[in-house]
Design brief:
With 592 residues, the chain is mostly helical. The protein contains 17 helices and five strands. It is a multi-pass membrane protein.
Length: 592
């Protein structure tokens, strides 16, 4: 059951609301500054300070990044099943803090890193890091990866649940929160890749890691101080156990006839109260095999009357609500998979687009050149501008035409992002043709500003798609599994990066497109156009998925105990253009 403070019924909200945002946003800003500030320039630290070979350093960062992207599944499971989001975030932040302290100590104490070569020596070969020094490094990275696993899947869900879903004004603020959350995250990343990286390169690694460590401590303090104001949702038990119970019950009753009237299937509001605080999920006509789990048989009854049991064995009999939880997750998988190619495309900004920038004219004046690694600033700035304009301009205008409190739905928002990403990689291919042609002709080098359009387009695409993806996971996930569903957002990012790595390895081995030493000897534009083709196919795949997607039908509990059925935002997505909307509320499950 929910705690008393979560039952914010009526116009006066004792807990949650806008007043919690300064604490949550301060936590997010400081935490992201610490995370990005400690990792953005880590490759330089491993090679320059620990004297690690480049390939080993790259492998270390890949393993660290992969682990950090997978641990959110564990953190989300703990939050949904046992600890709740507040305590998961708090404990995970403290674990991350310990990791940052260890990393700072390794960069500060001389005994925790190999000695540098004397300034007067010309033939000195730097000593490699000892096993103890590497153990300190790996231990600190492992702690930060574990800490990230508890923070990433819970912060967005915890912030959104501070707003009621039953009141229109509160619901609108909840969807605005995702824009604010992503804007705050982007702004923090912008500061981290400029200011924090500058401190590391020009002041010292002790200060470069020490500042993020102090910011992480500040984020924990800001978050904990707001404890009395937060709405707290109690954990509802292991979601994986509930899903397994539905599957086992359906298999056990696979030979039982399912009644044509879904009203005869087993429901128990008292049993589901802990996992359906906002409302209960209604029956849908998809994956009907699972409906076998809700058929009441004589072996399920506890007396001769044949009445449905009040406390059944959940491994033999499941409620409709629990079955629909599993159906909701199954329906989300195709939309989740559609986000992977966009991450694959965006990943090239930090690899081959970076190499393009290094080979181009980056001079702003005779004494200053733009660092190649700073070109990503254009992506971040365009993403921030997109989020700001979307929140302040597009939503109010679109709301007048669509009647939706968030302007356009997350499915349309994601579709726009997919389309813009296609254009971004298509443009990148033509820019590479122009760059390579001029380099081979011996006419000098192109200006690095030819790369700006593709960076900007990727930022705009992220502003639409990534936030729409996050909204989708939060809205369509079962209420008791929102941390787990939000973790899928991070696993999509992980999968996209791994797919990029696999694609590059295959092309490097079997083609001459991607040479090791000189881009002018390869055909990088073909990689961009291959990714463009993949994204075009993915856009078609996504359109089919969106058209056939069934929103979860939820019977909401109103402000005065009344109930209404809400199936989500029902929309027709014939193609990305034009956008066409139907109604918002319905009495049965809807199919797009």
């Amino acid at each position: 059951m929910k705690e008393e403070e979560t039952q914010n019924v009526g116009p006066k909200h004792k807990k949650g609301g806008m007043r919690t945002m300064p604490f949550i946003m301060a936590n997010e800003a400081c935490e992201k500054l610490a995370v990005v500030g400690s990792s953005a320039n880590l490759l330089s630290y491993l090679t320059a300070q620990l004297h690690m070979p480049l390939t080993k350093a790259a492998t270390t960062l890949t393993n660290f990044g992969g682990t950090s992207s997978l641990t959110p599944l564990l953190g989300a499971f703990i939050a949904d099943a046992f600890a709740g989001r507040f305590w998961t975030i708090t404990v995970a932040s403290i674990i991350y803090q310990f990791g940052m302290v260890c990393l700072t100590l390794s960069a500060t104490l001389p005994g925790l890193r190999p000695p540098p070569c004397p300034p007067t020596s010309h033939d000195c070969r730097p000593a490699a890091a000892t096993e103890g020094q590497l153990a300190m490094l790996y231990g600190s990275l492992l702690l930060t990866a574990l800490g990230s696993g508890g923070i990433r899947p819970c912060v967005a869900a915890f912030g959104a649940e501070q707003f009621e879903e039953t009141g229109q004004k509160q619901s609108t603020k909840m969807w605005n929160f995702f824009n604010w959350y992503y804007f705050c995250m982007g702004a923090s990343i912008l500061v981290a890749v400029t200011l924090i990286v500058y401190i590391q390169d020009n002041v010292g690694w002790g200060w470069g890691f020490g500042v993020p460590t102090a910011l992480m401590a500040l984020s924990v303090l800001c978050f904990v101080v707001g404890f009395p104001l937060y709405r707290h949702m109690n954990p509802a038990g292991s979601p994986l156990t509930r899903l397994a119970q539905v599957i086992v019950a359906a298999v056990r009753k696979r030979d039982v006839v399912v009644p044509e009237d879904p009203g005869l299937l087993y429901e128990n509001d008292l049993l589901d109260a802990g996992i359906s605080a906002t409302g209960r999920l209604l029956h849908t006509n998809q994956f009907t095999f699972l409906d076998h789990a809700a058929v009441v048989t004589p072996s399920d009854t506890t007396d001769s009357s044949g009445a449905p049991p009040s406390k059944p064995s959940l491994w033999r009999l499941s409620t409709v609500h629990r079955i629909e939880e599993l159906k909701s997750l199954i329906r989300m998988v195709p939309i989740w998979a559609a986000g992977i190619p966009l991450i694959l495309a965006a990943a090239q900004q930090y690899t081959f687009s970076l190499q393009q920038a290094r080979s181009m004219d980056r001079r702003l004046s005779s004494s200053f050149s733009i660092p190649a690694s700073s070109m990503g600033v254009f992506t971040i700035v365009s993403m921030l501008l997109t989020v700001s304009l979307y929140d302040r301009l597009l939503i109010p205008v679109a709301r007048r035409f669509t009647g939706l409190d968030r302007g356009i739905s997350f499915l349309h928002r994601m579709g726009i992002g997919f389309a813009i990403s296609v254009v971004a990689t298509f443009v990148a291919g033509f820019v590479e043709v122009k760059r390579r042609h001029r380099a081979l002709m011996g006419d000098g080098v192109e200006s690095v500003f030819w790369l700006v359009p593709q960076y900007i387009l990727h930022g705009v695409a992220e502003g639409f798609m990534s936030i729409g993806h996050l909204e989708f996971f939060y809205d369509q996930a079962p209420e008791s599994m929102r941390s787990t569903a939000t973790a899928l957002f991070w696993t999509a990012i992980s999968a996209g990066n791994y797919c990029s790595t696999l694609l590059v390895i295959v092309l490097h081995r079997f083609t001459n497109w991607l040479p090791d030493d000189d881009l002018n000897k390869g055909r990088l534009e073909r990689l961009y156009w291959l990714i463009t083709g993949i994204q075009v196919l993915n856009l078609g795949y996504y359109t089919l998925c969106a058209r056939s997607y069934t929103f979860k039908p939820l019977e909401l509990r109103g402000e005065e105990g009344d109930e209404k059925v809400k199936g989500g935002e029902v929309e027709m997505l014939v193609s990305v253009w034009p956008l066409k909307f139907a109604g918002e509320e319905l009495n049965e499950s809807s199919s797009i």
